[in-house]
Amino acid sequence: MQREGIGVAEQQALDMGKNVHEAKQQHAIWLEKTIAQASIGFDRVDTELIIAQTMKNCFDGISLSELQDALILGAVTCIERDPAYGYVAARLLLGKLYN
After folding, report:
1. What does the pLDDT look like over 5-45, one tens digit per residue?
2. Tens digit of pLDDT for each residue in 12-21?
3. So where are the chain's domains?
4. Which of 40, 63, 96, 98 is the most buried (most CB within 10 A)?
5. Do 91 and 75 contact (CB within 8 A), yes or no?
6. Are 16 and 4 in contact (CB under 8 A)?
């Protein structure tokens, strides 16, 4: 749908920005689901902490493989808090290897 007062190029840029925003939301949902699955049985694991650590290693244009690596590293950095994070990191690595 064309908005009044802007050209086609500007409209395409707005649509692209909207698609990028939707993609980021989908990635966030994927991260939450993946961490939740990997941390089943470990009640002391803080998924928000892993997400925060993962986001430190993310950048625009990151590939799925690099995102999985960042997720694993995010879990590994938390091992000194609780050894359960090591098991979560191992499950995340297995998930990457199976895919």
Report:
1. 445 554 444 454 555 566 677 778 888 999 999 999 999 99
2. 444 545 555 6
3. 8-98
4. 96
5. no
6. no
